[in-house]
User: Fold Centromere/kinetochore protein zw10 homolog from Phasianus colchicus.
Amino acid sequence: MAAGAGSLVAAVLAHSGRLDKEDLGTRIGRLSRRVEELKGEVCTMITKKYSEFLPGMQSAEELVVRVDGLSRSIDLLRAGVENEVQRDLNVAVAEFTELKQQLEQDTLVLSILKKLQEFDTALKEYNTALLEKKYIEAAQQLEKARSSLKMLESRKGFELKILKALGTELTVQTQNMLYHLGEEWQKLAVWKLPPSKETIGPESVMHSELHLCTLPSKEEEIAGPPVASVLQAFAVLGELRTKLKTFGKLLLKYILKPLISYPFLQPFIEEQSDVVILKFKSEKPDLDHSSPVEVFDKIKFVLEVLHKYLLNVPVEQCVEDKKECRVTLAELLGDMIWEELSDCLIQNCLVNSIPTNSSKLEQYIEVIKSTEEFEKALKKMQFLNGDTTDLLKYARNVNSHFANKKCQDVIVAARNLMTSEIHNTVKITPDSCVTLPKLPDPGSGDHVKMQKTSKLLPNEMVNLENDSKLSQYTFSLPTCRISASVEKLMELAYQTLLETTASTDQCCIQLFYSVRNIFQLFYDVVPTYHKENLQKLPQLAAIHHNNCMYIAHHLLTMGHQFRYRLTSILCDGAATFVDLVPGFRRLGMECFLAQMRVQKGEILERLSSARNFSNMDDEENYSAANKAIRQVLHQLKRLGKVWQDVLPVNVYCKAMGTLLNTALSEIVTRIAALEDISAEDADRLYSLCKIMVEEGPQVFTPLPEEDKNKKYQEEVPVYVQKWMTFKELMIILQANLQEIVDQWADGKGPLAAEFSPAEVKSLIRALFQNTERRAAALAKIK
Assistant:
């Protein structure tokens, strides 16, 4: 403290250098006194705090002593618990665990014994009920025994050898129960069927019978079990559906399906004292297929008999489950057989009743009504539940089915025509037309509009129409022969299109495109199906050519004829067949041209055996050339006869002209290529050429009447391009040098029109020896 005061004083002195010594001494004295006062106060405070702290420290020391004592006590207690109490506790827990396990085991044994008792009791009660023919109670007791056995078998870790024996006993008793129920079922419904080896047919079905036991009276019910007892017992055991499934299969196979398939079958019943027999009798049918009304009546009769004597029995699906609704045997059987029965009715009855003509669609309302009544009757007998079935939907959708059936029939008929023989032909003339009923006048169309417009023209307007008119046959198909099947095919197409004019919009569209499908089918089927014949037989190739042209000719106007009589969707431009025309023309031409190539190949092959027409002074060479010429002419004459009255005259003449031209061109080429032709060779070549010139025109016989063919034989140069060339060659073979030069006439004569200068020079060099005259003649050929 003194050091601090001294420092303070020194600081003060250093700070105030200007103070005088008296003031400094006074202040130092005051500061010293103040320091002493502060020192006294601090000592007093320290003494006070110490006096307060000392009792607290003494109390803390006492607490430390007490805590140490308590800690020693706790250690003693812990040691006691670990040594004595823990040992007793472990013993108690072990005893408790052992007692718990013993209790669980005893509880399990008790529950098993209880289930075994229940199983034994159920079997005893089952045997008693079975002896008394209380089949429902017996079946329920079996189910209880089965439930107890399942509970025993589900106990994991606890297996009894007796369980296997109990299971065997339960199976034996169940089969025994089913045997008794089966015996009772056999009394309810007895089938007498034809031998299994026989095929199910009309005669064998006639021997099918179903014997139904009539329901017992109240007195009889006491002696024997009623139908409901037997059937409900089957239901409890879960075997009712199996029995009904077998019964349903027999019912469909031997009664219901035959009634649908065979119109002559008529069901009837024969009643006896305790049985009703359902059997068949034969009646002569009016039609090949029964009408739906008749079929529905027959099936309804059979089901009514079954409902009355067998199926009108309520059956509980599960007796213990009170929430499960009660259903009748008829409902169960209906669920099993209705789908198959409905499909059979549709495929073998309703399909056959679909009209083939739109005019008969209105009469089909009767079939729809009878279908509705048939379903109502089945629902009343509880064979059916729920809403409208597929059977009624099919009947109501008659317009769609009519269109589908009509389209299918049309395509099938068309394909049969396409696969029939081509060579059966009919003659088509410009006057020929497809047999078609007169179409009704359209409600609107170009013709009508033109008539209305023409009435508005002023009387004084000048008519600018040319007085000369085209012949009525200008756009007609020329006379030829086509397959009778193709004519029928076109009639089928026209009749189908006529059908569309009286059909609904959807049906109209389907039928229209079915007609298009006919022609597309023809395009694909005929060339493939008749491929071999079309390649081998020239006449068939010609007929096929005519067939295609005939179809294309009608396709040009077919759509236009019906344009204003079809549905509005098709009237907007879709009703056309013009797009098919090029394909058919190409199809006919390709087939005929392929045959022409074959014939050309044969002609060239025959001419190849002529030994290039060289060395005709050799008898063998001349004979070979003569034979080749004769074979070619024979081939052409045969073709002329085969195609006679088949191809149109213009096509016939062009075809024969092309083939004859091929022969002449080949002969000219071969002779012109010869390097040396002697005088004798030239004479013989001339004689061979003369044969071709004299007999070649005779192959042109397009018509059966000989006198009418002369016109076409005289027009051979029109159809044979090389005819004049060939005749000029003959002139060269017999001419001298001067005559050849005259024929050339400085490149302006007939010879120059057919041969080039090089060809003429080559022939001159081959025919004449090398002389000045030949050189002079060659000089003029340029």
